Each structure stands twice: as C-alpha cells, then as structure tokens.
Amino acid sequence: MILTVTLNTALDITYRVPSLRPHTSHRVTEVVERPGGKGLNVARVLAALGHEVTVTGFTGGATGRIVQDRLTAVPGLVDALVPVTGPTRRTVAVVDERSGDTTQFNEPGPTVTPAEWSAFQETYADLVPSVSAVALCGSLPPGVPVGAYAGLIRTAKAAGVPVLLDTSGEALRRGVAARPDILKPNADELAELTGSHEPLRATRDARRRGALAVVASLGKEGLLAATPEGRWRATPPTRIRGNPTGAGDAVVAGLLSALVEHLPWPDRLTRAVALSAATVRAPVAGEFDRDVFDELVGRVEVTTDVSAA
Amino acid sequence: MILTVTLNTALDITYRVPSLRPHTSHRVTEVVERPGGKGLNVARVLAALGHEVTVTGFTGGATGRIVQDRLTAVPGLVDALVPVTGPTRRTVAVVDERSGDTTQFNEPGPTVTPAEWSAFQETYADLVPSVSAVALCGSLPPGVPVGAYAGLIRTAKAAGVPVLLDTSGEALRRGVAARPDILKPNADELAELTGSHEPLRATRDARRRGALAVVASLGKEGLLAATPEGRWRATPPTRIRGNPTGAGDAVVAGLLSALVEHLPWPDRLTRAVALSAATVRAPVAGEFDRDVFDELVGRVEVTTDVSAA
Prior knowledge:
The structure is a homodimer. Chain A has helices at 38-48, 61-72, 114-127, 148-158, 169-176, 187-194, 199-208, 247-260, 265-281, 290-296, and strands at 2-6, 10-17, 25-27, 30-36, 53-59, 77-79, 82-83, 89-96, 102-106, 133-137, 163-166, 182-183, 213-217, 223-227, 230-235, 301-304. By secondary structure, chain A is α/β, with parallel strands linked by helices. In chain A, strand 14 (223-227) and strand 15 (230-235) form a beta hairpin. At the A-B interface, strand 3, helix 2, strand 8 and strand 9 of A face strand 3, helix 2, strand 8 and strand 9 of B.
C-alpha cells in the first residue's frame, strides 16, 4: 500500500470552446470533470499500474463529494480524505479548439481550520505505519502552516517509511530541511530552491539542503537524478509531443512504484521517464497511454552522470 | 402563490480575476455561486417582494443539489423541481477587475429524456390549478420539444390561470401562438419574432401573433406595453448605471407581482421599471437594491402611447 497526500484537492473541469473571445459569451461544446490535485493524479497512475493506494488530504462540500464519488470508482484506490467545512476548490481549464491553447482559472480553495489540520495529522499518523511509501504532493491550502510538509516528513521517517516530496516555494524550502528520501522538483522549482539555473549544480545543492535523493524533471530532456547510490540522466528516445498536464505526477508514480518494488535507481528512472512520456502522448490530459508506455520502457536511455566523478 | 418554470436551471458561478489574459493561468480572487436560470431569478425577486412562489423545472446531479440547497434557504420559496439524471449545467462568468468586463462560459446542460419531460408535465399540471399566475422563463434544454411552452400555456389557460412567457427564438415563436396573457421580450427577441426593429410596430405585430399583452423591455428606454386596456411607455427618471444582469427577470417579477395584486397596467409597469433599475444598481448581480426601488417607484414616468390612437 502506497499513501499519497493531497492537501489541496480539486475538481478539475475542462471546457472546450470553438474560439476564446474575451468579454463575450461562449457556448461550451464539451465538459470533462475529474478529481484533481497532484497527489490524486499520482494515485490514479499508481492504481493503473496495479498498486494499492490510499489517498488522504482534505475534501469538502458538493465539489468534494464529486471528487470522492469519482475516486471510489477507481479499483485499488482507498479514500481516506479528511472532511473540511469549506468546499473543495474547482479549477476550470478552457481549451480553445482553434489554437489548442488553454486558459486556466484556479479557485483558491477553502481555508483549513486548526482543528481540521489536527484531524488530518491524526489520520496521517494512523495511516503511515502500515504503508510502504508516502508521497506528499502539491501546494498547501490556506490555513495549513507553511512547515506542514516538514512535520509530515518527520512522522514518516520516524515510522521508517520512505517519503517523496513534490511541492514548490516556501513549502518546498521548509520541507527539504526535514530530509525527505526523494525530492522531485521541476527545473523552475529547483532553481527557486537553490538559486541556480544549472541543474547539475542545483541538484547537488538540493541534496546539501537535506534531500537524500533529488530527481529533477527537466521537460523534454528527461530526468536528472542525484542519489546516495550515484548520479544518472534518463532521457526519452524521441521528442514526445502532446499535453504535458500530469507528466510530473507520472514521474512521481513511476519513482514510487519502482521504489516499493525494490528496483535499482536506473530502473526507477526508466519507468518514470516512460510513464511521463506516455502521459504527454495520451489523448486525455493526465491519463497515460499504456501502449506507448510498454513501447518506450525498453528504449529509455539511462547514463551515469560522469560529471559527478 | 405564483409558479415560475425554469426548464434550463443553472448554477451560476462568478469568478473575479485581476486581469483576464487568454492562454495563461489565473488565480481566482473571489468565487460567488448562486442558483441561475431566468425563472429562478424571477422567483427570488418575487420572494423578496413578499410573495409566496413555487419553482419548478429540472434539477440533477451535484450541481442540482447545490441549486436546491440554496433555494430552500430563501423564505417564501417552495422547491418543486423535477429530478433528471444528467447534472444541472453550470455557467461561469469571469469578471476582469481591471476593465469590469465579463467573459461568459455556458455549459449545455443535461439532455432531458421523454420520460423526464412527461414527469415534468404531470408535476406542472398538478401545480397550475392552485396558483394565481405562471411565468415560463428562459431557454429549453436539449431533449425538450420546441413546442414545449405552447403546451404549458394551454394547460395554464385551460385552468384559468394567467401565464407570462419570457423566452427567445423558436420557443418564443411557437409559444406566442398559444396566446399567453403576457409576452415579455427584449428588443432583440421582439425583432427576431416579428422581423421589425421598430418597437411600436413590433409590439402590435406580436399581439397579432397571439399574445394578449406585450411588454417589451428596451434597456435604458424602459418598457413599451401594448395591452387590451391600452398602450403605455414607462421610463426610469434617470439613466441608471450598473450591471444589467437580471434586469429583465426583475421586470417579469414586477409585472407578475402587480398582476396578482390586481393593480392596473400603469402601476404594474411602474413597479417593473423601478425593480429593473434597482437591479441594475445593486452591487450583487441579479439582486435588487431595496432603497433604490423604494426611491424610484414614485418617480417612474408612465405615458399613454398617443401613437396608438
């Protein structure tokens, strides 16, 4: 059982319109709704890979009920979301069919009360001892203390459970100091954390700040990993075109699933890159294309990073 | 008791954003949700005026539950909405705080099945005999026959209950032939129905097509009424600035409330104009400002239309 934490869950709504014209009225031609928030996306990919996953975080109101109804329909996925009074936020992505471009509107989400935050911490502490790995994913909702991830990392480490952190900004800065087993930043998050836009230097610096291993996702250049066992680059065999939504969450799912299967680092990175590419290529944002994954997993190139010598 | 019919109910969501920039991501600074659809707006104004109102139409899914929860919180309002399988549509209005302009996205709404349409007609036929007036408002959802309003008008007339129609396009064209007691088109709807952009000529023509009385809402020029008792113009005393959302629904509520209070036509028009202006002036879209209403109701100018002589 893997545990994913999504403190800022969402109902992701996608609208298709023939052409976006600001300050006019649009008839939406297609509406797609799905549970959102990085940890829920990671959980869906893990479940599709055949892993049992428990999801926790916060849920509230009518939108929260829709999110939970959808999650319980996913085989292998256990709902341990903690109720809050305010309604789970919506995100609305408006896709312009003419250009393919997306215009995004993100609601702020409910403010979590101190009592709700305490209730979550209890639930989390009860769940952690029986899982094989934990993923802490995404932004913090209003009301949750900025050091939240640091505390959750310490709880996992005290229970001897490996923990991966995927967040940004101050939550990332505070979290990394609590020594997560794996940090999964993208290029921007890594640069913001370390002040360096040079990935090799930045991953080394992120390890010095506390992360045991750092796996940076560098878009089309694949992954750069700095770990206690060595340093690697993993790159997809071809330039993958498509929708990058959820590609980073697929990397997290790939890393975690391979971790609990006790695969060595090069195999973890191979799986993560192939899953990420198969997500970019899938017709539905955030899903992954199984055939593309099966085809790519044998063709990802993993090289030992000689510059680390 | 007044009955309002809203076949295409909605959950109206308003987002405020600092500035709308197409093809970028926006943090929404304020979210406001309210039940929508013209008949529900009319019902809210009627309830605020102290009238008892029953609302019917269709409701479904999680969005429908939110709409119903909000409606039952309104004193004097009775929920007789008929369940459908598909979810009630959302509308999303994005207000650009810099320019004040609104960009609107309207979901299509659920397709109503023949069985659901039959269930509605039964509910409607059960309600009509015990009410003092009926308002049929707004567009028809997918699946409802285009002649729907004509049938609902005939049912009301057979029960001796006065009926007002406020819709557009083919639903209006088919509905007017069933001889509604009052037709409430705006300038565009009237022109589309009659082919004439000259309101005096067009209101006369709409009466020839079947409407017993026609009250055209002409924006800042107020109302133009052609009735069996005479022809009138009613104009607000000053140019009213603000948000016109819901101004037409306030006209309907004004006309209907004054009808059931047996007021003469000039008083009905005075109330409708004052309510409409008080809605434009209100800070919340679709609400009306009670003080502005009380102040304006004594200052609306109603003139007998001499050109009708």
